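Lay summary. Proteins are chains of building blocks that fold into shapes, and those shapes determine what they do. In this project we predict the shape from the chain. Here is one chain we studied, written as its sequence of building blocks.
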Amino acid sequence: MTRDPAPTGRSAVLQAMRDADEPMTASRLAELLGVHVNTVRFHLDSLLAHGQIERAPIESRTPGRPPHAFRVVPGMDPAGPRRYRELAEILAADVESGPDPRRRAIQVGAAWGRRVAERESLDDVSVQQLAAVLDELDFAPEPVSEGAATIRLRHCPFLELSRHRTDIICPIHLGLMQGVLEQRASAITVERLDPFVEPDLCLVHLAESKEIP
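And here is the predicted shape, written in a compact code that computers can read:
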């Protein structure tokens, strides 16, 4: 995967708000970023939960209730970039050295996914919500419609590691997605992840989840 992801994640929403000289609505941000307004609302909810933005008053020129607007809370971005590659390599090597490393990698990813689902206060996760989570985590998913059987990922946030540890990193990502869905008892699950089916494409295969007796 060599193509850079389009800037449509939470960081892009935050930067667009920083660049603005006035409070921004979800619809205005969606227009600026060229994404669906529901995707922007998802990221705004996350930014609010993390205390990075706040609601702000806005003047309305039309009758009725004014739309919700938001502005950035001053301060350094607690979700900004970090240099964690060396730590990630150490952890991946530790998983790889144990018995049944693929199973352990999926378990590690699932634990990560459950934390993500809790942090984002997700309800029953739909295909579009899962894609929004993956977008926030920098997997650069292509837009999907509800009921889609696959999600196409155009970027790997652990690209340097996945090139020589595909057998560990990709199962972690599989577990991540499964963990997000299982935590919220979603009607869908991730059946499998096909890495690098093209140089810039990984393919997520979805299926209906099965109830556990």
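What the prediction tells us: The chain has eight helices and five strands.
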